[in-house]
Amino acid sequence: MSNDEVTYFSEEDDRNLEESFVADFNSSYSNPYRKGYPDPKMIRDLVFKRIKDKEKLSEIKEHCVKCSLCSREARFPENRPATDNG
Fold first, then answer.
1. Could you read off the pLDDT of 3-44 as tens digits, one per residue?
2. I need a labelling partner for 41 at 20 to 30 A (CA). Which of 26, 51, 69, 83 fits?
């Protein structure tokens, strides 16, 4: 590292900051009534890259950015509720 470079955070500080941001996001952007939620199958299709329609893909990605529950389901698919059509 040259003398001109500035280090703001250690790797550990960076991880802690990221964890803090994720925790804040998950609590600040909750949607307890699931209003406007896509079908859980669509979240699964997003995770496994099965959505071919660009407009639908954009719509679901935009929703996941604004909705902490769907964001968690997309990041951790094993925690998604089961559906009858798998």
1. 566 666 788 888 888 888 777 766 665 666 677 788 888 988
2. 26
d(CA 14, CA 74): 23
Amino acid at 51: I
The H or E element spanning position 82 is: none
Residue 17 and residue 55 in contact, taking contact as beta carbons nearer than 8 Å: no
Task: Please return the burial class of 82, using the count of CB atoms within 10 Å of its CB with bins 0-12, 13-18 and 19+.
Answer: exposed
What pTM, to 2 d.p., does this model score?
0.52
- Type of residue found at 14: D
Task: Print the domain residue range for 40.
Answer: 11-79
Is 82's pLDDT higher than 70? no
Distance CA 17, CA 2 (A): 25
Q: Please report the pLDDT score of residue 53 as a whole number.
A: 92
86 domain residue, yes or no: no
